[in-house]
Design goal:
The complex is a heterotrimer of chains A (334), B (398) and C (292). With 334 residues, chain A is mainly α. The longest helix of chain A has 44 residues. Chain A is globular. Chain B is built from twelve helices and 15 strands. In chain B, α2 runs parallel beside α11, α5 runs parallel beside α6 and α11 packs across α12. With 398 residues, chain B is α/β, with parallel strands linked by helices. Classes of the chains: A mainly alpha (334), B alpha/beta (398), C mainly alpha (292). The interface between A and C is large, with 41 and 42 residues.
């Protein structure tokens, strides 16, 4: 008698579980759809400041995605990704203002140079792991930071100004217009996130995940672990460089502060906030971070103190990220 | 019948009140964004500028043509990236009518580029680098202080003609540092002097001038000519004395190296050195006496050069708004063009603007601080020279 | 020649200042494997504490004595009440603790700025140590010689404790093999807390000493922390003697490049760190105490 009741109860809970799963899937689809519509319509829906914030969020999101490939997918925490953001910006800065090349040459040229440098730096850095990896990436970043300040080529601590936005006159559009620039950044963001998703879901990405779980096992299975790590390093670097290019086009200039280790730390914070397990996590983290920073600067002048406290709380309690925390909150609905 | 009088009075009163409210609704406040590096190395000069700015606004009762003036403050953290973010926030979110302030030339260059592209007026209080009104000139950007060349070129000529044959230049390695000291060098060498060495220290990142001072003392020069501001200035003056160089290799500078706001930190070190300044608090002109009186009333202390720069910035803005009847023109470059046409008496002398919206300096004083028997520190007049013209380089016409 | 001599002394002075910070950090790192990015915060706390004492009493010497106390207490508290429980609960890996201390570094800088403002503060140089002396044909500030003296004294003192006392022996054993030390009945948590506190106190002492020279400001800990890490890694983690020699290398590199090759000034020590990590990741200096 009791068995039948148990079976009946189990099948009820299974049915409930299936309904819940479909509901969550539906909810996620609705959320995603509204996000897409919202993103497309943003410039018309609201004041221009929201567009500006959205641009900043997307650029930060690309930067964080690059960091996440190392931190989340491969398990390598780097405090030096700011150097690639800076290299991206300085690359087109030098390409356009010093060498006089048009953007359609400078941008790919910069990305190629960054990839080559990342291969070299990555080969050195990936020989270490854990805390040593953190330190050596920090050291490389400080080295580039110091060079940017000292070199005449990069115009020292003043940085380089006059960096052009893309010339969209063939489409009849003006890149200086914030709305046009917003769509340009949106397109790049979508492409970047999609590419990142493909990489993570690909066989390459699975090997990275295996390395994250246990390097020894992956190596025992016959994978050339160092090559994969360097590969991830290069892709992450190029992604961060793309963010750097967009950033310098957005503000029309680049300076050494974009390579500071505080900036790298902010990037890592965005990744931690958003959660390392999903591809949109870094974007969510970037959004939370940028909005919180805005809110903080309106409420108080003590940004640094709250940033530090916020950072500590997130690391201590939301280690798996806000996205995960929300997911588990939603799942425990019944 | 009996209460018609009271009734009519009540109606008239009500009508009047409604008319007053409607009228008030027609005149929203004028919002000015004031962007200064309130935190960090230049925090103290920023506060001085802010106070002077407030005095200028207070002279007009904080309103123009019946419209209240509201100041929205922002901190650019002496960083161009943050300056750009804050500029966007002021213009797009706070919806200010114009942005004023900015000390750092690096921030000034970044933000003036943005102001030009966004067609929003920017009235710089410091940002002395010559390029800002030359290479990067814009019909939307004005500067109420002066250019580096205007300040330092004739300083070079002055010292060369007053017994200084050789000098070693020491300064922070960024746009303003280079602008100031290059201008000095040009004037000095054209006046017959010789610059034997140039020593540049990383801006905001140098805490120890030991190496720089050692090199300077080894250069064989007669004096060190320098520009530093804020905390860096205090460090340099103290360490210069620590190395025993006050007699051997005097440190000649300006009103930022020997900033009045730093005198308490410097103690007796301030007594003796000669330096150049654009503002003499004891000048007996009408404009200055009015300024000093109002400043003392509002802040219970005496103004100094930073406050004076802030005052000029605020005053220029208020005079322009007054001329425009309290209404911002649809084409905001007209605001800057109106400012450019101003000529007025300021506590530092007469202010007029040149064709690239840059204010010119009438004269520069050379002073020395003496201590009287009561222990008060008094700036005493040593000499003066005229401010110079700006460097060319603006290719736009407006 | 004069420049060279002065720079040797400047280099020594820079080295000693960074040694005070590195000594504590290398023990913390070597013993507990914690990358304490907040070590710079202790430097800042000590300096501000010294400023308060100095302005209340007018005495530099009192500031020197009392200044390191606050960092010591904060260090002990941080380790025993925050870092240790988090590590034990398994919630955080060493990386997480490192990131936590990163946040703490900025939180402290912000808090200090909130409490004291942005103006640069100072502790007045004591009369006994002001002025300059003439030695070997150059004029050199007395106070900088004092810094060199303090650094050397601390180095000698620490080496004595490390090599010849029971505490030192326990520490060396703990660096080598933590499990064994616990098994031998040593209260490892108390040991960790005290070592953390002492490291913090040394950083605080460095803060008070640096104050008359470089002034006190909220970001002072952030700028010096990266240099300290370079020293710790080059010297070898947990290697006290190594960090002394490494501080000399880093300090001299800084001083000499400032004087002779200013273009590489901000570049040289990081290139050095990277070189060491590639070629000899355990540090340039052999840990002589390791047996077998």
């Amino acid at each position: 008698m009791s068995d039948e009741v148990t079976i009946a109860r189990t099948s009820t809970t299974t049915r409930e579980a299936i309904t819940l799963a479909t509901e969550v899937r539906r909810a996620t689809l609705v959320l995603a759809a509204s996000a897409i519509v919202g993103a497309l319509a943003l410039p018309w829906l609201s004041a221009s400041y929201a567009t500006t914030l959205a641009i900043e969020i997307m650029i930060a999101g690309i930067f964080a995605s690059g960091i996440n490939l190392l931190v989340g997918a491969t398990g390598l925490v780097s405090l030096g990704q700011g150097m690639f953001l800076g290299l991206g910006g300085y690359g087109i800065g030098i390409g356009t203002t010093v060498l006089g090349l048009p953007l359609w040459l400078s941008v790919p040229g910069t990305l190629v140079v960054v990839a080559i440098m990342a291969a070299g730096i990555g080969a050195v850095c990936t020989r270490t792991r854990g805390v040593e990896f953190l330190l050596i990436t920090l050291a490389f970043s400080q080295m580039f930071f110091g060079s940017a300040i000292k070199l005449r080529l990069t115009n020292g601590s003043d940085g380089m100004s006059g960096i052009p936005r893309p010339d969209l006159t063939f489409l009849g559009l003006n890149g200086d217009n914030p709305v046009v620039f917003y769509y340009y950044v949106l397109v790049v963001t979508v492409v970047a996130v999609a590419a990142m998703w493909r990489i993570v879901e690909s066989p390459f990405g699975s090997v990275l995940a295996a390395i994250r779980e246990s390097e020894r096992r992956a190596s025992a299975m016959g994978y050339a672990v160092s090559s994969y790590k360097v590969g991830a390093f290069i892709i992450a670097a190029v992604t961060c460089a793309v963010a750097g290019i967009l950033q310098s086009q957005y503000t029309y200039f680049i300076n050494p502060d974009s390579m500071s280790w505080q900036l790298s730390g902010e990037g890592v914070l965005m990744v931690i906030i958003g959660g390392t397990t999903t591809v949109v996590g870094p974007l969510v983290g970037a959004a939370v971070f940028v909005l919180a920073k805005q809110g903080l600067s309106i409420l108080t002048t003590e940004y640094m103190m709250f940033f530090g406290i916020f950072f500590m709380l997130v690391v201590a309690f939301f280690r798996n990220g806000v996205v995960e925390a929300l997911k588990s909150a939603l799942w425990s609905k019944p | 019948m009996k209460h018609t009088g009271a009734f009519s009075a009540a109606i008239l009163f009500a009508l009047g009140a409604t008319a007053q409210m409607a009228f008030a609704e027609d005149l929203p406040p004028l919002k000015i964004g004031l962007m200064l590096p309130y935190k960090g190395v230049y925090a103290v000069p920023s506060e001085g500028i802010d106070r002077g700015f407030q005095v200028a606004l207070a002279e007009y009762g904080n309103s123009v043509a019946g419209r209240r003036i509201e100041v929205v403050r922002a901190d650019d953290e002496l960083t161009p990236n943050v300056g750009v973010q804050q500029f966007n926030r002021l213009v797009q979110f706070e919806k200010v009518d114009l942005v004023a302030g900015v000390i750092s030339s690096s921030v000034g260059i970044a933000v003036s580029g943005l102001a030009d592209k966004a067609s929003e007026p920017l009235v710089l209080v410091n940002a002395f680098a010559d390029e800002i009104t030359a290479k990067f000139c814009s019909p939307y950007v004005a500067r109420t202080s002066f250019s580096a060349n205007g300040f330092q070129y004739n300083s070079g000529r002055y010292w060369a003609s007053h017994g200084v044959r050789s000098a070693v230049i020491m300064g922070p390695d960024y746009s303003a540092g280079h602008s100031f000291l290059d201008a000095f060098r040009r004037g000095f060498e054209e006046g017959g002097g010789k610059v034997v060495q140039e020593i540049w220290t990383p801006f905001q990142k140098t805490k120890d001038w030991g190496a720089a001072l050692t090199q300077a003392s080894n250069s064989g020069a007669q004096v060190i000519y320098s520009f530093y501001a804020g905390a860096e200035a205090v460090q340099l003056v103290k360490q210069h004395a620590d190395f025993g160089l006050r007699e051997k290799l005097p440190l000649v500078g300006d009103h930022w190296i020997y900033d009045q706001l730093n005198w308490s930190a410097l103690g007796d070190l301030i007594v003796g050195p000669e330096f150049i300044t654009t503002y003499l608090p004891t000048a007996k002109t009408e404009a200055n006496e009015k300024f000093v009186a109002k400043y003392r009333e509002m802040f219970k202390q005496d103004p100094e050069v930073n406050a004076e720069l802030g005052y000029d910035n605020g005053k220029a803005i208020m005079l322009t708004l007054e001329k425009l009847g309290g209404k911002m023109p649809a084409d905001k470059s007209q605001f800057i063009a109106t400012m450019r046409s101003l000529v007025f008496d300021s506590p530092r002398g007469k202010i007029r603007f040149n064709a690239t919206n840059s204010a010119l300096l009438e004269k520069v004083y050379v002073v020395k601080i003496k201590k009287d028997s009561a222990g008060n520190l008094l700036p005493t007049y040593v000499g003066e020279f005229a401010g110079a013209e700006d460097l060319p380089g603006c290719t736009k016409s407006f | 020649m004069q420049v060279f001599l002065t720079q040797i002394l400047n280099g020594l002075q820079l080295s000693m200042l960074v040694y005070l910070l590195a000594a504590g950090l290398t023990l913390i790192f070597g013993l507990m494997n914690i990358l304490n990015l907040a070590h710079g915060a202790f430097f800042t706390l000590g300096a501000y504490c010294g400023v308060v004492v100095g302005s209340l009493t007018g005495s530099f010497w009192l500031a020197l004595l009392v200044g390191p106390l606050l960092p010591f207490l904060v260090g002990v508290g941080l380790q025993s009440m925050v870092l240790q429980p988090l590590a034990e609960r398994g919630r955080s890996t060493h990386l997480d603790l490192a990131l936590l201390t990163f946040g703490l570094l900025f939180a402290t800088a912000g808090a200090v700025e909130w409490l004291f403002g942005s103006a640069f503060l100072s502790i007045p140089t004591p009369v006994a140590l002001s002025g300059h002396v003439n030695l070997l044909g150059i004029s050199y500030p007395v106070y900088r010689l004092f810094i060199i003296g303090v650094g050397l004294a601390v180095a000698v003192g620490l080496t004595f404790v490390f090599d010849r006392t029971l505490l030192g022996a326990t520490l060396r054993a703990g660096v080598d093999n933590r499990a064994m030390v616990t098994a031998l009945g040593v209260n490892i948590n108390a040991l960790f807390a005290i070592v953390f506190g002492l490291g913090a106190a040394l950083a605080g002492l460095a803060g008070v000493i640096a104050a008359p020279l470089t002034s006190v400001y909220s970001q002072m800990g952030i700028t010096i922390v990266v240099e300290t890490f370079v020293v710790v890694v080059v010297g070898g983690l947990g290697n006290l003697r190594g960090s002394f020699y490494a501080s000399l290398i880093v300090g001299m590199t800084n001083a000499m490049s400032q004087a002779y090759l200013p273009e590489v000034e901000m570049f040289a020590i990081y290139a050095l760190l990277i070189g060491v990590m590639i070629v000899r990741p355990q540090g340039l200096f052999r840990n002589v105490e390791r047996v077998g």
